[in-house]
Amino acid sequence: MSKGSRRLKTGGEIDRSQIINFEFNGTQYQGCQGDSLASALMANNVSLTARSFKYHRPRGIMGANSEEPASYVELLGDAASGSQPITTIVLREGLRAKAVNCWPTPSFDLMSVNQLIKNFIPAGFYYKTLMWPNWHFFEPHIRRIAGLAKAPERAPMSGQYESRYWFCDVLIVGAGPAGLMAALTVARSGARIVLVDDGSLPGGDLLNTKELLNGQPSKIWVNNVIDELDNLKNVLRLQESSAWAYREQNLVIVTERHPAPKQLIQRTWRIRARRVIIASGAIERTLVFKNNDRPGVMLASAVQAYINRYATLPGKRAVIFTNNDSAYQVAEDMIAAGIEIAAIVDCRKDPAPTHASPTGDIVHKTNHVVTKVVGRRRVRAVNLRSNATGDIKTIACDLLCVSGGWNPTVHLFSQARGSLRYEDSLSTFVPDTAAQANVCIGAAAGKFGLQEIFADALEAGHRAAIDCGFKILELSAPIAQTSAPYSIEALWHSNSDDLSASSFVDIQNDVTLHDVHLAIREGFGAIEHVKRYTTGGMGIDQGKTGNINIIGAVANQMNVALAEIGTTTYRSPFVPIELGAIAGGREDSAVLPYRHTPITQWHKDYGATMYESGAHWRRPGYYAKVGESLQQTINREALATRENLAIYDGSPLGKFEISGQDAIKLIEMLYTNQFSNLKVGMGRYGVMLTEDGRILDDGVTFKLHDDHYLMSTSTANAQTVYRHIQRFLQIERPEWRVWITPLTTQWSNATLCGPKARQVLSQLNSDIDFSSHAFPFMGLREGTIEGIKTRVCRVSFTGELSFEINVRSRDALKLWERLFEIGKPLDLVPIGSEANHVLRVEKGFLSLGHEVDGTADPYDLGMSWVMSKQKADYIGKRAVKVRRGQNRARRELVGLLTDDPYRLVTEGAPLTPDGKLEASEGFVTASVWSVARSRSVALALLADGRNRIGQKAYVRIKNDVIPVTITQPCFYDADSELMRS
Amino acid sequence: MIYDVSIQQLDLSCTFDLKGSQADISSCLKELCLEPPKQPNTGTMSGKFTLGWVGPNHWLLLAPQSEEQTLMSVFDAQKTIERNISVIEVSDMFQFFSIEGPDAHDILAICSPIDSHVTAFPKNGFTYTKIFDTKALLLRSIRGFHIAVDRSYADFINDNLHRTLGNPLPINHAGRVAKNNNNIS
Question: Chain B residue with minimal CA distance to A730?
Answer without folding.
Answer: B56
